[in-house]
Amino acid sequence: MPDLTDYAKNLLGRALCGRLPAVPSQVFLGLGTGGSDTGGLTGEPIGTGYARQRVTFSGSGAQQNTDAVTFTFAAAPGTLTHCGLFDAASGGNPLTWSALTSSVAVTAAGTVTIGAAGLNISAG
After folding, report:
1. pTM of the predicted protein model
2. Does the structure show a pLDDT above 90 at 76?
């Protein structure tokens, strides 16, 4: 996920200047249909049983998700093309976003799973 949101850039800027930002204690992954630096992930599914999923990371440099992340849908959300991290399960602040390696067409109820180490976060 190479694109930081404006919110995350400001958070990092404060941290680099010795100011103590309120860094998130948990992060949540979402799926959607687009993204922007100002708003992060856009087009999250509505009315499909979808919910953001908590994700944990590990690594000494680049970060990778430690466990698989599974999204469950009670109805078809259509084609999902992007993912993003947030500091809350709903609402909250967008942190980063990226296009998926390949889009996922969900045409019926079911699941979408991103495998362990399938998400990579790096600063450069």
Report:
1. 0.89
2. yes
